[in-house]
Every structure is written in structure tokens, then in C-alpha cells.
Amino acid sequence: ADTPDTEPKSKAEATPAKASDTPDTGPKAKPEADDSRTQILRVPGTSAPDRKAEDKPEPKPEADGSRTQVLRAPGAAAPDRKAGGKPEAPGKKAAESAPKVPSWAAARDEDADQDPERTSQFVALKDLDVAPPATARPQSRPQPHPRPQPPAQVAAPQPLPPLDLLADLTNTPPPPETPRRTALRRVKVWTPILLLLVGACIGGQMLRPLPDPRIVAAETDHTVDGQFSIPWPAKGQGAVRVTGSGDIGTFGDQKPVPTASVAKIMTAYVVLKGHPLRKTEPGPDITVDAKAVADGNSASESRITGLTVGSKFSQQDMLKMLMIPSGNNVARLLARWDAGSDSEAAFVEKMNAAARELGMKDTVYTDPSGLDAGTVSTATDQLKLAEAVMKDETFRAIVALPEAPIKGLSEKLVNNNDLLTVQGLSIRGIKTGSSTPAGGTFVWAAYKSVGDETPLIIGSLMEQRAPAPDKDALKSLDLVKANSKKIIEAVRTALASTPLVRKGDIVGYVDDGLGGRTPLVAVKDLNVISVPGQRFKLSLNAGASPLPHTAKDGTEVGVLTAGEGEGAKSVPVAVKGALAEPSFGTRLTRLG
Fold first, then answer.
1. Is the domain of 89 the same as that of 201?
2. CA angle 117-120-121, nearest 5°?
3. 65/192 same-domain check
4. Which of 11, 135, 226, 419 is the most buried (most CB within 10 A)?
């Protein structure tokens, strides 16, 4: 039998039918009538066999009950039998012209089990999980070519969870989804994230700078044990203070009242501030003008007489004339000399400016002598001025003089403050005053030795009025000096050194700014000069070095001060127990 020159490219192509004899090239004889016939099957979707005019059907085989089937692979053309009667190689024309179709379109022969090539076609269909088509039946006419179907739309694959993906890679199916498995997976996912956030928060808290520690006083004031009563007069106003220790007591309504000659204290303060002198230094010469000579002839005020126009006196002598006999005309002369003009207003403005600097809120000056009733002040304001001016050694030396001779004057100067000569009072100034609007006024200074210290006691008494008639307010002046003497005697008697704080007493704390406190204790006793029942102002401050974050037990870190101003007493304070930085938990949980 003849075999095709070329093997079919598709497994679905059928092999040519077998024959015992080689076909003739001439016209073929009809087979005998044995009811056997040749069937040509066509797979759906393929073209019908191309038969030319000279083609003739192959002769039927002998009547042996068998028949020959010719199968065509899907998309292959029918065998083209030419005049010579030899069929073309199977699949050759199909490969050149026919479109390829799926393998499932190949027809199945009844005896496919006898042909291995045809059997492999159906095995391929089985592997593709596609049902093989039914055996083609003989058709009398070709069927239309099936329309190709568009490819199905395939959804994009969704990513698998990590555990499911791992199961696919290891060919291990994932365990069934359960609430416990879901919870464990969430814990595994969120635990590293939470740990990272917690670590960042801890690191941020620990890297934040610590707040500066500060010292906090346990109390801001302390009262000395015991009681003391100052013998105040029935009327007027007054105040007493020990410099450095603070106020001992006040009396009356502290409202502005006329000061009389007490105003000359501010005049001397301003002159010495603008033209300072040493204790024994005379200072520049001041020329007496005509106004000073004319004012000296007034019989209604305190003045210095015997002055002549053009005469010169030193600044030291002029201050003595101002403060000892209380010359009003010299007060105005000094104002003009200091201001450098004939007007006294500029000097008065200096007086008011100085009062504001000293905190004398209830004091107003309208003239340098105090003769004008518009010059007003209070007893407490006058103590502020007295404490400031008594720091000047020239002023202290002048006001302590009971009398003083002045070259160029016919009479020596006599101090109106006759308490300077009273034994046992140790009075060292300052100034008396009297007038009808003011009554008797007096600002005084005294001393008392306590141990190895001699504190300065200053006091003021105002609005002391004697019963009428009081000619020239002389009785009021005597009254204010008598009442002041009683106060000075009582204060000096009661004044003593008293331990305000004992060694080891807790006086404050070191606050680390995060709620931690370390106690501070006094290193030694704090003794103060005071009277019983006196109230002291306490202040606790850091030392010369900045306050540390850590310190050993007993390290001195601050100073406790009792009182205020010059002469205030202080003792060092130290930490009780070790001073440590805030703990880890405190630093971690702080919010501010």
C-alpha cells in the first residue's frame, strides 16, 4: 500500500486507508456488490473534500464485511486525489492553508484502538480535561465552519494571605480558619508594631531633658516665740524696725500726713546722692544768695540767721545747718545750688524721683524744707528713707551731733533732738519736725549691742498733737519726743538674740520638677536680733553654684535668709539624704 511522504503535523490527522493493491492510474472499477462502502467522515468546522471532475471514488474492498474509513484531523483539507489517483500526503495541504483547530475536533474511528496515533489524540483530549467529540457521521453536504469564540475574561488573581501562600508553596493545605487562629495571626502581626511604637515612646521620654530643679521653702515667714507690746501713743501713726531683721511693729492708719521738717531728710539724701562726701571731707563751697539772707529774717519758721550775701560755706557746713537746727532757708539754698538754677522745682522733682526709687508710694514732696503742708508722707515710708540714708557715713556723723560750731556764724548750732544726750538710749539721730498742720513729727535712730552685734533700730512717729493752745507747735514737738523715748526704751530692753531655726530643722525641699522632693536642713542655728513675737520673712535660695540634679547627703546647695536688707541673717542648707535624678518610671510617665 502507498504511504504519504510526510507525516501529519497534528495528532488529530488520520492515516490513509489501507489497501491490498496499489490503485491503478486509469478509471477505477466499481467494487462488487457486497454492501460494503467507503465512508469519509468530516470533523465539524472543516471544509468538505475537494473533489475534481476527474476524481473518482476508490474501489470498495472485497465483500468481507469490513469497510475503510478515512479520518481527517480538525482543520485539515480533504484528500486531493488527482488524475493519477494518488492521494496527497495527509496534513500537507492542511498545514499550508487550513486554520488550526482544537484537537478535540478530530473524529474518532470505530477501530481507534488499532491505530496508536489516533489513540494519542484522545489521550491528549483527556489530559486537557475536554470531552472528545462524538464520532462523525456521514454527511451528504459540507457543514458551515464554526465561528471562533472570544477568549473568556479571566479575573486578576488575588494575593493570598502569607500562611495560605506558604501552604501552597509547601503543598500543605492551610489549617481551617478559626477564631483562635485569627486572634493568633493578629497578635503576630500587631505585636512587632506595638513593640516598635512602645520603644519609640520610651526612647523619646528618656531623651527629653530633665527640668531644672528648684528650691522650695517650707515656710515664707516665721514668728519668734513670746509676746511683746510696744507702748504706742493713743493717736497718730508710727513704725519701728530693726535693720536687717525687718519690722517690729506699726501703729495707726498709715495715710499721708504733713511731714514738717522731717522732709529735710530727703533734701540731705538727694544732695549727698548728687554730691557725695567722705565723713571728714568739707566738700565744695556754696555761696549765700540774697534770697537765703531774706528768708533768714522770717520769724514764722525755723531758719539760720547771720548770713550775708556772698559769704561761702562748705557743703559739709551747709548740711549741718540743714539737719541740726533745721534751717528752712538753707534747705532752699541747697536746692537751688544742686539744681543749678534759681528755681527749686527741679530739685523737688529729684526728691519725688528718689521717693519712687525707695518705694515710698504714699509720699509727695512739694518743697525742700517741709514748711508747705503739701509735703506729705507716712511713718512706714519714712522708715524706708531712714534706712537708706543712714548708710551714708557723712549723714550719720552729722545727725549724731548734739551741737556744732560753724566758722562764719556767730553762734554754734544746737540740735533740736535733745534725746541725743539722754543716757541709756544710744540715740544717733535723725530729725525732728513740728508745724501746725503736721503737729510733732520725729524720725529717730538708736543702737543696742547684742552679743558681738550692734543692730540699728529706726522708728518714726507722726501726728502727735498737744492740747491747744500750742504756740508754734512747740508742745507737740515735746510730745512726740516724749512718746518716742518710751518706744525706744521698750524696744531696746526687749531686743535680744533668738534662735529662729535650729540645726537640722527641715527648712525646704529640692523639687526635681517631676514631683520628687528631697528635704533641705539647716547646717547650723540661725540666730536673729529680735523682740518676742516678732515676725520674720524667710527666703530660701540656691547658692552661688547652679542647683545640681544629683548630690550626696549633706551637700550644701542653698542659703536660708531671715529678714531683708542689709543686716539680714543667713545660714547654709544641705540635702538630707542623697539627691537623685527622677526614676525611670517617673521620667517615662511624665506628661509635661
1. no
2. 95
3. no
4. 419
Among the candidates 477, 495, 513, a domain finishes at: 495
Q: Is 136 inside a domain boundary?
A: yes
CA distances from 84 to 38, 51, 373, 475 (A): 20, 14, 161, 175
296 and 311 in a single domain? The answer is yes
Same structural domain for residues 91 and 197?
A: no
Q: What is the DSSP string of 293-361?
A: HHHTT-SSS----S--TT-EEEHHHHHHHHHSS--HHHHHHHHHHHHTSS-SHHHHHHHHHHHHHTT-T
Non-local CB neighbours of 46 within 8 Å, separated by 6+ positions? 72, 74, 75, 76, 77, 98, 101, 105, 145
Q: How many domains does the chain have?
A: 4
If you ran DSSP here, which 8-state letter would residue 100 be given? P
**Band of residue 149 on the pLDDT scale cut at 50, 70, 90:** low
pLDDT > 80? residue 381: yes
Please check whether residue 231 lies inside any domain of the structure: no
Q: In whole angstroms, give the CA distance from residue 439 to residue 473.
A: 6
| Predicted local distance difference test score (pLDDT) of residue 122 | 46
110 and 187 in a single domain? The answer is: no
**pLDDT at 340 (0 to 100):** 86
* Same-domain pairing of 394 and 270: yes
For 69-103, how does the pLDDT look when each residue is reduced to its tens digit (9 = 90+)?
444 444 444 444 444 444 444 444 444 444 554 44
Among residues 463, 495, 527, which one ends one of the domains? 495
Burial of 16 (0-12, 13-18, 19+ CB in 10 A): middle
The model's confidence at residue 564, banded by pLDDT at 50, 70 and 90, is: confident
pLDDT at 591: 78
Same domain, 139 and 166: no
If asked whether residues 29 and 133 sit together in one domain, one would say yes
- The pTM (predicted TM-score) of the whole model is 0.65
Per the domain annotation, does 4 fall within a domain?
Answer: yes
Q: Supply the pLDDT for residue 170.
A: 73
Residue located via cell numbers 501703729: 251
Q: Which domain holds residue 471?
A: 237-495
Q: What percent of the chain has pLDDT over 70?
A: 72
- pLDDT class of 286 with cuts at 50, 70, 90: very high
Q: Tell me the three state secondary structure of residue 271.
A: helix
pLDDT above 60: residue 497? yes
Q: Is residue 232 part of a domain?
A: no
Asked whether residue 25 carries a pLDDT value surpassing 80, the answer given is no
Report the candidate in 412, 470, 422, 466 with the shortest Cα–Cα distance to residue 444.
422
Question: Is there a contact between 105 and 44 (Cβ–Cβ < 8 Å)?
Answer: yes
